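hey so u asked for the seq, here:
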Amino acid sequence: MLELTVEAVVENSEPRRRRLPEWAKETLARDPGLEYALPSPRVIDPITDDLWREWNGDDHSYDAVLATAQRIPRELRYVTGATTVESSIKDLLEGGAGVCQDFTHLFLAMVRGAGWPARYVSGYVGPAGDAETMEGQSHAWVEVGGADGRWVGLDPTHGQLTGPHHLRLAVGRDYRDVAPHRGLFYGTAAGAAPEVSVRVSRLSHQEVERVPLTAAVHWQQQQQQQQ
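ran it, structure tokens below
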């Protein structure tokens, strides 16, 4: 049996609730966020431009971006198993159902087509409210960039802005850049679907200071051995 265990400590806070300024093309050309404004392997489908016009007309404002994030879960159904990691935006729209990865790819394509830089966020949903510990779940959402260089999180699966319970682990152009894990297994055993469990706990500031990061500890040990 192959067992993969991942541990991480994520510091998070309540996002600033404010309006984004309009994106300026001349600013985009000088900004490293340019790669998030262009099509990527999993986020390219001409039909999304038509869908944007159907929903928003010629409005490319931040209000239209937010309205699009809120509309996606009303138009499409969240159904586990309806798609796979290889499903395309076309598969989602034709089937009318998918999961967070699909909703995120659709939203990315629509927003980028409207001229906004947007990046795929891979992470987890942690305890909301006063809950200290919960069985978490992997999740995906979008961060949209503004001309001031800031990124605002939008969750097209739930049609809302992200909050402190959205725990970001990695960002990329699409799912392929930030898949939770990847690799190859060689052997004679029959294949089986992986079983995944996530446990998320809220830590106090004092607890965070006491938690050693495994990578940092390993690096320190290597340095000591070399001395």
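The beta strands are 77-78, 97-98, 118-125, 133-145, 151-155, 160-161, 166-172, 198-201. The first strand starts at residue 77 and ends at 78.
lmk if thats what u needed
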